[in-house]
Amino acid sequence: MISRGAIIGCVAGTITLGAGTLPSAAANYGLVIGIDDYIGRSNDLKGAVNDANDIAAALGRAGAAEIVLLTDAAASKEAIENAWIRLVGTAHPGDTIVFSFAGHGSQEPEPAGRNGEEDGLNETFILAGYQSIGEASAERIVDDEIFAWLRLAEDRGLEVIFVADSCHSGTMYRAVGGPALRYRVGDFEPPVDRDALVLPDPRYATTRETDFEHVTFIGATQEDRLTPELMIEGVPRGALSWAFARALEGAADRDGDNALTQYELLAYLVPAVEIQAHNQQTPSILPFAPMAKTLIQIGETTGSPILSVPPNVFVSVFTRGAAELVAMAGIGPAESETAADLVWDVEGGWVDHRIAGRVVEDIGPSQIMAVLAKWSALAFVESIATRDPFSMELLSGNQFHVRGEILAIRPGGASRPYLTLFNLAPDGRIELLVPATPDEAETDWRGRDFNIQLRVADPPYGAEHLVAILTDDRPLAPQSALVQMAALSDSTSLVDGI
Fold first, then answer.
1. Which of 60, 76, 242, 496 is deepest in the core (most CB within 10 A)?
2. Distance between terminal CA atoms of the chain?
3. pLDDT at res. 119
4. Gap between the Cα atoms of 102 and 291, Å rounded
5. Could you tell me the pTM of the whole model?
């Protein structure tokens, strides 16, 4: 069978990044939380504090009036609540507060008599000092409390962007292969004795995200899915926090007006997170009705070319077996299987990716260099694509597909006229799909409603990666290079254009 793999889109052009000042009409505030260090070691994370530091720095570059950064033990329940109440009291109507949390989420049975959750479970943020017995059991934040806190801001006419880079339960879209993969849902016992948590008024048990007019909720993934920690630019991170920080720096500002609307955040965050997580994670945004109103001012920015070489683009490989890797750009050996981006089992003839799972089967040592070259290229393409992403949708959904099955790909709205679309097959072969004819090379794809149909063909099977590039000018050089590279591949295609 062949799995979905990843769908990547990028736009060639220029975005703006940098620091600036806010217009006097509105101010930004931030309450930014990141927790890696939990009691004991089994639940420790590696990227949540990185996330908090990154978002705080991005808010600072956007000219925020005040940022409260709380990490690890400093992010106590009392410190968080006090900081929130103070910021709400300081801000003026029309100002924006960013409330971000990176760390573990959990679920627990809803107390008897409240009956606000359809599944009978409250969603919870777990803080660094949480324990299941006594006073430390209060070191968690239940969703009812969050709604009560947000009501304070709502009643003052403040805009709130609530970013939760955690998860509460669930599974990934498919099995993953990396044994070192860490999820932001820990193994925490619910309170078992003398629960110190005091819940707010019962009306907040039946409150829903859509009850707020001035709050935008952004979650790392769907409620029934897990949130993985990734390596992004060589650093452990959460994909949502990383993408949100880039959005604040200007990557999501499509119209260049130094302000972000809910529509712009949705259009940027969803494909940016999916690219980084190899389509294993899709953020949720509520209310799911993209609005044109400004959520946050991000200030003046300075230009930075989108196609500059990003730092730390590197893929680590652990070899299970006797074969040794040949040195090549962007690829290097991992010290252990748990530290590897890719694991190559020489005898089994397969390669696993720490996020995407099994990415190719039935390959021999003579083919491994092409496979690794593909993943090195993908690491570069992904780092570029997430700066100005272009979305594509697999209409059949994220699942496995069998030989002979027809797949339909629907690109999102094209912001630039010329489209180059190619497939990177599991074994590293390149298949140029668009343009397939001289007429397609001259086509302006903006405003066109179309889909591309592919057929699952021959082995080896694994993860296909469709890459779309949009440009203002005809990309003659890239298309010519792709044609030549495709000609060097085996004549047997893994997917057929139809």
1. 242
2. 19
3. 66
4. 26
5. 0.73
